[in-house]
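Appendix B, Record 12. Input sequence as logged:
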Amino acid sequence: MSQDSPAESVISFGASERRSLFRDLGRDHRLPILTAALAAVAAFGSLISEWQTTDLEGLAYGDGSLPGQRVVQTELVDMGAAGGGYLIGLFLLAITVVLTLFGPAEGRRYARLAGLATGGLLLAVLVTLVPVIADTSLIIPKYFLVDLADENLTIAPGRGLWCAFAAVILAMAALRLPEPRRREIAEPAPVETAHQDDLDLSIGPTAPFASLPGELDQPHRS
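Logged structural output:
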């Protein structure tokens, strides 16, 4: 290869466009609001859906047993202290999301931190509930299940638990998304001086305020 030949160039297909698309998507002010709306829908689903289903057959009650197969659903109100803790955390998380998205700029950072902390605690509570909901019936007392064999009892988590996970994760995402956009807005804009290029100063000779005498020994005459 001669020294006069042009250097080799690397051609890329679409990489910069994809990065620019993702960057612009992250800066879209509508994305946090959409994410928060999806979190609200998931949270409403967790309130109205069952958290556990208990499928049983041959449940002993008194001197006899209930005939046939029964499916018992556990709602959020049936979960006792765990359900109450989830409700309190969900209310706090909703308040922090609203303050972060629509509150005054001075308090958004603190609302975001409080919301992320609340969301983390809610995730920890939900994770600890998964094995309990998968193995133990929350609505039927244990002494009713003494005469039941393992094949007569089937316990499974319900849709409410998965909706709760989705609501908390989406709410935390809505708290994180607006942060880069507000940081860019908070940066001070450069101050421009009006008519900066219109100033034109010129210096030239002019007549003095007083005429000088022809001879230094003569009296001064204006």
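The radius of gyration is 37 Å.
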